[in-house]
Amino acid sequence: MEGKDLWPRLEGELAPGGDLTGRAVQAIERGDVLEGLAFGDTALAGAAGVRLEFEGCRFLHCAFSPGQIKWLSFVDCAFEKCEFSGARMAGVTLRRCLWRDCRGVGLDLSGALLHHMALQDCQFSYIDLARARLRDVKVEQSDLSFAALLGTEVKALALRDVSLRGAEIGGTPLAGVDLRSCDIQGIKVGIQQLRGAVVTPVQACELARLMGLVID
Fold this sequence. Notes:
The structure is a single chain. The protein is mostly beta strands. 12% of the residues lie in helices and 38% in strands. It is built from three helices and 16 strands. Strands 1, 2, 3, 5, 6, 8, 9, 10, 11, 12 and 14 form an eleven-stranded parallel beta sheet that branches. A three-stranded parallel beta sheet has the order 13-15-16. The chain starts with 14 loop residues before the first strand and ends in a 6-residue tail after the last helix. 38% of the residues are buried.
C-alpha cells in the first residue's frame, strides 16, 4: 500500500456548498454531480432518489442520514468531524476518500465499495461491512469494535492501532493483514480466515483459546 494515493484530490478553493440536503435533493432531481463544494455544519437527511454523486467535496461537522438512494457515490472527498451513527449507506461507493475524527456507531456500509480510503481517529463500533469490498484501505487509531465483516472482500488492508474487540469475521480472508498493533480481544473468527494474517505470540495464544485449543 505504500506509495499508493489514498488522499482525495482536492484542488483549488472550494465553493461554499450551503444546505447539504437542499443541494442533494436538487442534484437528484436534475441528475447533476455535486463538484468542488465545501459543506460545513449541515446535514444530509432524508434525500431519496435514483442517483446522487459527490466529487471533490469537503465535509466538516456534517451529519449523514440519507434516505433510500439507489446509487450514492463520493469520489475525492474529505470528511472531518462528521456524524454517521445509525446511517444506512448500503452499497455506497467511496473512492479516494479521507475520514478523519468521524463517528459512525452502527453505520451500515454493507455491500459498499471502499477503494483507496483512509480512516484516522474514527469511532465506528458496530459498523456493518458485510459483503463490502475493501481495496487499498488504511485504518489508523480507530475503533471498529463489534464490527461485522461477513463475506467481505479485503485487498491491501492496513490496520494500525485499531480496536477489533468482539468483531465478527466470517468468509473474509485476512491473508497479509497485520494485526499486531490491534486489540483483538473477543474477536469471532475462524482458522480459515486467519491463514496468512500477522499476529503477535500473545495474540496467537488468545486466538487459540477462543478457538477452544488447549495450550499446555
